[in-house]
Amino acid sequence: MLLANWRLVKELLETVDVALEIVDVRDPLTTRSRRFEKLCEELGVKYVIVLNKVDLVPRATARAWVRYFKEVEGIRAIHISAQKRLGTLKLRKIVRKLSDKKPLVVGVFGIPKVGKSTLINTWAGRHATRTSPYPGTPGYTKKAQLFNVGSGIYLLDTPGIIPVEGDEVEIAVRMNPVDNIKNPVATAVSLIKRIMTHNPKAFAETYDISSSEPENILRELALKRGWVYKSDKEPLIIESAKLIIRDYLDGKIRFYVLPPRERREY
After folding, report:
1. pLDDT, tens digit, for every residue of 11-25?
2. Residue 70: which of 28, 110, 124 has the closest Cα?
3. Residue-by-residue DSSP string for 24-54
4. Residue 56's CB: how many other CB atoms inside 10 A?
5. CB half-sphere exposure, 165, CA atoms < 13 A
6. 262: alpha, beta or left, given left = phi > 0 and alpha = psi -120 to 50?
7. For residues 240 and 234, what is the distance between their CA atoms, to the nearest angstrom?
8. In whole angstroms, what is the distance from residue 157 CA to residue 51 CA?
């Protein structure tokens, strides 16, 4: 995976009129980059937090996050689904309101697997950049590219990905190909605990599993899939761990976080 260093991010920001920070609407605070936002403010670059993958959460949750960023943090935000083409026209209008420059250069930034390339493909109306199924596989941008998306707007696809900040689980699952994660079982256990904090029924709904303890969830899932050692028929929990990580990245496990002080109802 090609990561952009902060010197390069700064150089790119100095060439754009508006910056889009793509985050995962399921957990915006974990998938955002406060360092990136601070850099935008220092350089005087207008930016918008784009809450992507809105098709994976209730619409009320997405709206609550937009309110949170506006009212609590004073940041412009919009919810979209780049893959489902939901809200992308509204995003274009917001970008145009932020600047009347023509041509208007818009930078697209984000940590791995938040939908950065998918948004560019959607806006361009063609597969202008190739998307990858999982972090670290072929397809990530290797150099800056400018795409004309109409109405005098050009998208700058950034070379590399902003590093994940803080959260160890997100660093592990987004900064490495799944097969290269150093300890997938420990990572999956931490991920399961976090998901179940917000949706205790997540794994029962996704895999029809009755277990509630992370290690037992891994064992039961491996047995259901027939992943066992030939010698003693013990479950291959490393395979179920990798499946859970992949399904989390793909949005197959129902999970989302509400803004602070909002009550969760599943």
Report:
1. 889 999 999 999 999
2. 28
3. ETTSHHHHS-HHHHHHHHHHT-EEEEEEE-G
4. 21
5. 14
6. beta
7. 13
8. 18
230 burial (CB, 10 Å; 0-12 / 13-18 / 19+) is exposed
Q: Taking the model in full, what pTM does it have?
A: 0.88
Position 160, amino acid: G
Residue positions counted in the chain? 266
State how far the Cα of 253 lies from the Cα of 256, in Å rounded to an integer: 9
Give dist(CA 111, CA 90) in Å, integer.
Answer: 23
Q: How buried is 265 (Cβ within 10 angstroms: 0-12 exposed, 13-18 middle, 19+ buried)? A: exposed
End-to-end Cα spacing for the chain: 36
Which residues does 183 contact at the CB level (< 8 Å), separation at least 6?
Answer: none
Torsion sign, CA atoms 189, 65, 200, 235? negative
A 10 A CB-CB count for 9 gives 23
Confidence bin at 162 (pLDDT 50/70/90): confident
How confident is the model at residue 191, as a pLDDT? 96
Which tens digit of pLDDT belongs to each residue from 35-93? 999 999 999 999 999 999 999 999 999 999 999 999 999 999 999 999 999 999 999 99
The answer to whether 262 and 64 have CB atoms below 8 angstroms apart is yes
**Higher-scoring residue by pLDDT: 256, 262:** 256
Please name which of 49, 1, 47 lies closest in space to residue 23, comparing C-alpha atoms: 49
Nearest alpha-carbon partner for 40 in 69, 71, 4, 75: 75
Residue keyed to tokens 């994660």? 181
